Amino acid sequence: MAKFCLKDSEKYYLTLSERPKRFHADSPVTNVFFDDTNGQVFTVRSGGVTGVTVNGMDDSKCTSFRMEDKGPIISIKFSPDHKVLAIQRNLEGQNATVEFANFKDLMPTNVEYCHICKWKNAKILGFVWPKANEIAFITDHGIELSQVLPEKKQLKTLKSTSFSAAWFSWCPQSNIILLAGNNGILLQPFSLNNSTITKLQKLEVESSRPVMERDVFVLRLCGAAWCALFKHGPVSNTTSSPGPTEVWLVPISGGGAVQHVLKTGLVGRFAVSVIDDLVVIHHQSSQTSLIFDIMEEAKPENNTVVHKPIVQGISMRPAVVDEQTCPMYSGNWVVFQPHYVIDARLGCLWRLELNLAGLAHEVPKEDISNIVGVLLRRNNSKETIYRILNQLVEHAGTYLMELTHCFDEINAVYRRWADLEVARNTAGCPPPAQGHFPALVSQADMCTHVLYKHSHTLLVQVVTAYLSSLSRYELVVQHAVCELVVRSLVRAGEGGRLRALVRRGALQDGRPLACQLLSLGHLDPAAAQVALDMMWRLRAYGEIVEVLLSREEPVSAAGAARQAGAWGSLAARKLLSAAQQHSRPETFLAIYHALRTRNERLRGTPDFLTEEQCGAYIEYYKQLMSES
Fold first, then answer.
1. What are the Cα distances from residue 232, in Å, to 240, 246, 263?
2. Is the pTM above the cut of 0.85?
3. What percent of the chain has pLDDT over 70?
4. Strands in 36-141 per DSSP E
5. How far is 65 from 73, CA to CA, in rounded Å?
6. Residue 144: burial class (beta carbons within 10 Å; 0-12, 13-18, 19+)
7. How far apart are CA 144 and CA 520, in angstroms?
8. Surface-to-core class of residue 417, CB atoms within 10 Å of its CB (0-12 exposed, 13-18 middle, 19+ buried)
9. Among the four 46, 336, 467, 591, which has the fewest Cβ within 10 Å?
């Protein structure tokens, strides 16, 4: 199978951030916690007596402090504005309680208070911060949403809802919490927005196959909230081993009614990340990561779309810690949403990053356009798209068909964007749904960054393919493309094809295009005639007369002026000058007599006026008459 490999690209399309955020490693005296709302690691040494360190990718939010050891900590998190610290402890015989400490400039103010959940004998499963001054307590009895009043050292209950829960999954990007009840058969999402708790539509789970906490994630993807369910294949009767795992993406809020099924083809332990609206499935035993794009075009069947990885799964680029390669996909790794990786034993916090060029490192030839389609839906991808296109154009003899498909991908996206812009700017029309177009490649971009850089013999085929793609998507050909098409075809001696494109309307009439055709008239005389015809359709009569005069065609210029109704205002001196340059004296005589006839009709005398400065031409006329 023929493959395409992008020059100067590496095979890794996923990498951990080059400089991990370091923290004290997990040990008998050090406990490590992760705050998924703020993306921070808490290291608590000796219950906080010898220090609590808070680290994250944002150095301005990192801090360290000490606190009293009041018992084993289960969870510890800052409010989003870092003004209140909440702590949940594992204390036997105590009601569901969470402690609070006020902070100023990332340091404790020694103001502490606590809150006891409303339900008696309730067990706190955890807590989350939907807003800077709001906290939600998740218990086995339900959810309690409260407002935190740091100045008053108290909490005010805003809303509560009952639900018998065993565990929960939280998405801070969407403020959606998913509670699991009835041993994992019932999954009930709630939205914690606008200072209230909104019950959303429950998710259907097969009663014969309840889900476990490790197989459920709530993701923010493509502007919507999704529940990712890892469904492991049934055990085979012949091999006694489970079948491949599928990841089902079930819409919770904003994702419509279509479910997406991601085919991993693998068995074992998995984790999931989201990078730039791509779903990344990590598989520990094979040490590979698979990338899926649910925005790729596919026709749903029974409200379900099946996806395969956009490229073959490979490992992340090996990470280096303390000048040594660290174990990848380690059993010590914990993956958090949307793109965090923690190794508590090494004391490292990474951010998972996408290397776009790696997606085109080695792909089947026929899949190049699919990769371009994926890149068009990613941020900061235009440079990689240009690199791919330039390599395809450079080897157009091998990749002309694939290049055509890439043009179609690009122009299809541009067409959708243009339609949305028209709808958005049309008076009386409701505003369309907001489209997301992170990488728009305009015709000017295509010319500047790709087509202008090449001049080989196959450029005509490339430019023609691009022009055909624009036509398929009914995009008006802009001047930059017209200029390139004309120059390429004329220089290649393809004047007939150029004239055919103009006749068919593939190149729309325009003054800039006509001027360019005229400038190339010395290479293809027929191109000049095409330009004049175009000017006539544009009613650029004055320009036509000037062009004919510059080409020393005074008779044609006079005829054009007559047809345009501009014969009476045409300067006699210009016309006589062009006629004098003509090789045939009879041409001058014809023009001279025509002008004298015009003078007599307009002024009652055939003579030229002094201010017309035609004296030299009168003398030339007399010379011709004496010679004859």
1. 14, 6, 11
2. no
3. 94
4. 40-45, 51-56, 63-65, 73-78, 84-89, 97-104, 107-116, 124-131, 134-139
5. 16
6. buried
7. 77
8. middle
9. 46
